[in-house]
Amino acid sequence: MAKRETTRKTPARRTKAARTESTNQAVGSPSMSAPDAAAPESAPKSASKPRARGTKKAPSRPDTQTLAIELARSMHDDKCTDIVVLDVRGKSPITDFVVIGSGTSDRQMHGVIQNVRKMGDKLGHSAWRSDADDQSTWLLADFVDVIVHVFEPNIRAHYDLEMLWGDAKRVEWERPEEVVRNRAGLRAGEVSFDH
Fold first, then answer.
1. Distance of CA 143 to the CA centre of its chain
2. How many angstroms separate the CA atoms of 166 and 153, rounded?
3. By CB count within 10 A, which of 18, 57, 100, 189 is most buried?
4. Alpha-carbon span 22 to 19, nearest angstrom
5. What are residue 83's phi and psi, to 5 degrees?
6. Are 146 and 96 in contact (CB under 8 A)?
7. Does the pLDDT value for residue 143 go beyond 70?
8. Total Cβ atoms within 10 A of residue 105
9. Which 3 state secondary structure label does DSSP give 34?
10. Alpha carbon distance 76, 120 (integer Å)
11. Using one digit for the tens of pLDDT, what is the confidence trace for 80-115?
12. C-alpha span between 81 and 108 (Å, rounded)
């Protein structure tokens, strides 16, 4: 004699699609009467969606610009130089932000990519993949909405991604206490034509 399996579906375990379907069937049925006059009209909307017990809110993930800024700061902490964050939203079909930095050695560059991946995981954005060329002169970590490039300086000059995205807006990523300004209040390399 074969065992007969019985499954019990409880209302709490119904899927959202099943709830929507049963609601649509009830609303569309001709036997449905007008709303009960005794029901309070000023009931709060949140009362219609009870929250399951024991569920916690998922930690909020930062937006992609915040992620790009935090990844650039992590690169700076790991001694990368000439770090640039480019906003390529609307200009690139692949990503929203490109973070570019120069490393000093292949060992340091690999450490930077490892720490960038850890920072992404910490912020709730795991890297989809990371890659390096044969000589470890160009490493990248792809977070889908943010792509981090770490170059050896000569290779960076050769590919010149900043020029490729020359019309992209540069995003300020430095911590306020780290911004170095001269006596005129300008950053290094800035020129003021106001008199």
1. 7
2. 18
3. 100
4. 5
5. -80, 135
6. yes
7. yes
8. 10
9. coil
10. 15
11. 999 999 999 999 999 999 999 999 998 999 999 999
12. 12
Q: 10 Å Cβ neighbour count for 136?
A: 16
Q: H helices of the chain, where? A: 16-28, 64-77, 106-122, 153-159, 161-164
Helices 64-77 and 106-122 meet at what angle, rounded to 10? 140
Q: Is the dihedral of CA 80, 83, 87, 91 positive or negative?
A: negative
pLDDT in tens, 44-87: 444 445 445 555 544 555 689 999 999 999 999 999 999 999 99
Domains of the chain and CATH, by start: 64-175 (3.30.460.10)
Note the residue count of the chain: 195
What is the rounded CA–CA span in Å between residue 98 and residue 89? 10
- Residue-level pLDDT at 190: 59
Residue 70 neighbours by CB distance under 10 Å: 20
The CA-based angle 119-70-144, given to 5 degrees, is 70
The residues facing 100 across adjacent strands are: 84, 149
Tell me the residue type at 21: E
- Classified as helix, coil or strand, 107 is helix
Distance between first and last Cα of the chain? 97
- Cβ–Cβ < 8 Å for 71, 148: yes
